[in-house]
Automatic annotation (TrEMBL):
Name of the molecule in the record: Isoprenyl transferase
Species the sequence originates in: Caloramator quimbayensis
UniProt-annotated catalytic positions: 33, 81 (proton acceptor)
Alphabetized GO MF terms: ditrans,polycis-undecaprenyl-diphosphate synthase [(2E,6E)-farnesyl-diphosphate specific] activity; magnesium ion binding; manganese ion binding
Assembly information from the UniProt record: Homodimer.
Length: 254
């Protein structure tokens, strides 16, 4: 074990040197997929996959924080995830509460701000309470903002924004002519945050699954076959190195 870990650390040290620390993506979004398949491969219940997935979250948050990433948005529970069996939904909610309670001190130590996007009013009271508590106890930190996407759906977010814009227009609080890309951004959960530079999806699925639909217009996408519980800082480094080699033109020529 000792030697295995030592090898991993040597690999990490080697690959870390390839990262240009002046070009770290400001905002990374992640679709954490493959917990269920990770567990199935080991003949374990799906809940074990989610538990292992939380360990990955711990490690990846710390790594992003050390690298100087400013925003990390994790797709933790989608508007569609309510269709899962009730016991799985409740496992996920319990893990969220455990994570927030158990990690608060460490997150504070790492200067992390805990934030959420999505309609949390539909979550169990205890989840809402812990989210608000974690946010209020970390909001003056100045490092990484960890956005947990909970009861989040990209289409739902856009519908809410449209409704709010219409309401503001009907109350004469806003002029139709003022509607532009920036204004719509300001009505989204991610207002005041830059759009993601890099979106990572694990588990080999090649789709967006209703995540940050408006915000990812020019985001660089990176996919890996690795299941979320097996996703390590090493994979994140690889994704960042790939990202740094890409030519981001935002529709213009260079
Ligand atoms: C996808 O795997 C994962 C999820 C839907 C939930 C992600 C949640 C966690 C990692 C833990 C709880 C969250 C926090 C913030 C503590 P899947 O179940 O869809 O995997 P599968 O496609 O292989 O079945």
């Amino acid at each position: 074990m000792f030697f295995r870990n030592k090898n991993i650390s040597i690999e990490n040290d080697k690959i870390l040197k390839e990262i240009d620390m002046n070009k770290i993506p400001k905002h990374i979004a992640m679709i954490m997929d493959g917990n269920g398949r990770w567990a199935k491969k080991r003949n374990l219940p799906r809940s074990f996959g989610h538990k292992a997935g939380v360990e990955t979250i711990r490690e990846i948050v710390k790594t992003c924080s050390k690298l100087g990433v400013k925003y990390l948005t994790l797709y933790a529970f989608s508007t569609e995830n309510w269709k899962r069996p009730a016991d799985e939904v409740s496992t996920l909610m319990n893990l969220l509460v455990e994570y927030l309670k158990g990690e608060l001190e460490e997150l504070n130590k790492n200067n992390v701000i805990i934030n959420y996007i999505g309609d949390i009013s539909a979550l169990p009271d205890i989840c809402q309470k812990e989210l608000l508590n974690s946010h209020s106890k970390t909001k003056y930190n100045t490092g990484l903002t960890l956005n947990l996407a909970l009861n989040y759906g990209g289409r739902d977010e856009i519908i809410r924004a449209v409704k709010q814009i219409c309401t503001d227009i009907s109350k004469n609080n806003m002029d139709i002519e003022k509607i532009d890309e920036k204004l719509i951004s300001n009505y989204l959960y991610t207002s005041n945050m830059p759009d993601p530079d890099l979106l990572i999806r694990t588990s080999g699925e090649l789709r967006i699954s209703n995540f940050l639909l408006y915000q990812i217009a020019y985001t660089e996408l990176w996919f890996t076959d690795v299941y979320w519980p097996d996703f390590k800082p090493y994979h994140l480094y690889k994704a960042i190195i790939d990202y740094q080699k890409r030519d981001r033109r935002f529709g213009t020529v260079k």
